[in-house]
Amino acid sequence: MANSKTFREVRAWQTAHEFVLAFYKTKSMFPDDEKFALIPQFQRAAVSIAANIAEGYRKLSKADKLRFFNIAQGSLEECRYYIILSHDVGYYSDATANEMWAKIEAASVVLNAYCQAIKGNKGIMDEE
């Protein structure tokens, strides 16, 4: 983490981005009547995970960083629900739901570890 030059080098962002790309591949599985309902909600939440990690990366204080990472965690949980919903209404097959679940779980584990590393990093200033 200390040697990263851009957010693209951060594993938390990389796994979140992999999840976003996976969602984009599944968009065609949704019916047209979800074009203005579930699809944009799911897409917004998925993109928000990676976007908030990227934004938080450049914040200087732990509190600012963690605020953005916590927003990313909230969006990640929102996506967990959309995976469940997409499966339960029949848009996602078992295989697709399992694949999406594995990707969101990987993103969650890495993001949580990144948050813990930020909390313990003595080189990042605390807010005054």
Stretches where pLDDT falls below 50 for ≥5 residues? none
Written as H for each helix and E for each strand, in order along the chain, the element string is HHHH
* Strand coverage percent: under 5%
Task: Determine the mean pLDDT.
Answer: 94
- What structural class do the secondary elements suggest? mainly alpha
Number of strands: 0
The portion of residues assigned to helices is: over 70%
Number of helices: 4
How would the blueprint of this fold be written?
Elements lengths: L10 H16 L11 H20 L4 H27 L5 H27 L8
Helix pairs in contact: 1-2, 1-4, 2-3, 3-4
Structure description:
- The protein has 128 residues and is mainly alpha-helical.
- The chain has helices at 11-26, 38-57, 62-88, 94-120.
- Helix 1 (11-26) packs antiparallel against helix 4, helix 2 (38-57) packs antiparallel against helix 3 (62-88) and helix 3 (62-88) runs antiparallel to helix 4.
- The longest helix is centred in the middle third of the chain and has 27 residues, at 62-88.
- The radius of gyration is 16 Å and the shape is elongated.
Short description:
The chain is mainly alpha-helical and 128 residues long. Helix content is 70%, strand content 0%.
Annotation keywords:
128 residues; mainly alpha; 70% helix; elongated
